[in-house]
Specification:
By secondary structure, the chain is of the alpha/beta class. It has two domains: about 5-180, 3-Layer(aba) Sandwich (Rossmann fold); about 190-305, Pantoate--beta-alanine Ligase, Chain: A,domain 2. It has helices at about 10-25, 40-50, 80-90, 100, 120-125, 130-145, 155-170, 200-205, 205-220, 225-235, and strands at about 5-10, 30-35, 55-60, 95, 150, 175-180, 240-250, 265-270, 275-280. It has a six-stranded parallel beta sheet with strand order 1-4-3-2-5-6, with helices on both faces. Strands 7-8-9 form a three-stranded antiparallel beta sheet, with helices on one face. The longest helix has 16 residues, at about 130-145. The radius of gyration is 20 Å and the shape is globular. It binds pantoate.
Length: about 300
Amino acid sequence: MPRGPVIVRTIKTLDRTIGGYRDAGETLALVPTMGALHAGHLALVRRARRRADRVAVSIFVNPTQFAPTEDFASYPRSFDADIAALRREEVDLVWAPPRDVMYPQGFATSVHVKGPAIVDLEDRFRPHFFGGVATVVAKLFAQCRPDFAVFGEKDYQQLKTITRMAADLDLKVRIIGVPTVREKDGLALSSRNVYLSESERAAAPVLYRTLKESAARIAAREPIARVMSEGWLAIEAAGFAVDYYEARHAETLQRVETVDDGPLRLLVAARLGKTRLIDNIEGSVRTTGAGPGRRPRVLRFARKVSSAE
Ligand code: PAF
């Protein structure tokens, strides 16, 4: 049985431990989390393990990304089980700062993000969220100085926002996005799935099912507006209150009108009882028009704004 990971709670010990890796010429990948780890997080850890000599996982339930009305106090916390799972993955270091280490008395700085953070998706319903995420992730990068940082595609707008921030602030960390891990019936893994009642859990896979149907119809060149409004209704019919159900440009997250405006990403947020679920999938990859000697149209968008994989 592996012995690690070393659990670090002070900046001094963090500096000493990471300094040791650096002195040995080792690379470091960081997986930022809020704990309550599931198989989706472990997929991030495995990707990190493939990219770097050392893997650090941060566990910090970040108060600044929750609105006062949200579930900060009740957010699932399972530190001992998380550590056991990370030990099995042979993670080297867990960075678990107490709140006053992350936000000491007098803390007065925050990172203000725009671009993909203000596109009228999550930001419309959680206006505080990306400022809180960007601030804590910028701090995690400054504290751990990773070569790579790994995030799930499930929080797609978050992934794009962090990628933009890292590029804009020259943070010298390569952001890696990892595809969403799903239950057998398609429900995206999320720490908040534990909030679902039995009947809500049975209804929840409609999100992924509808996303897939919509992507197929868009790929078949049905009008995006019609496909998405019918998808919205299908999700509502399953008992959800829909916050948004949208097709957007996969990199900028700006609105699109036709499949030719792609590559596309389809994104949803919807509430089932007290639980708010988000999900997204790749929209149609626009390759029609490509023939012998012709470039797929998607190449028009090949200049990415990010270093995300
Ligand atoms: O995705 C999450 O778990 C959080 O938003 C993150 C990136 C760890 C920042 O608190």
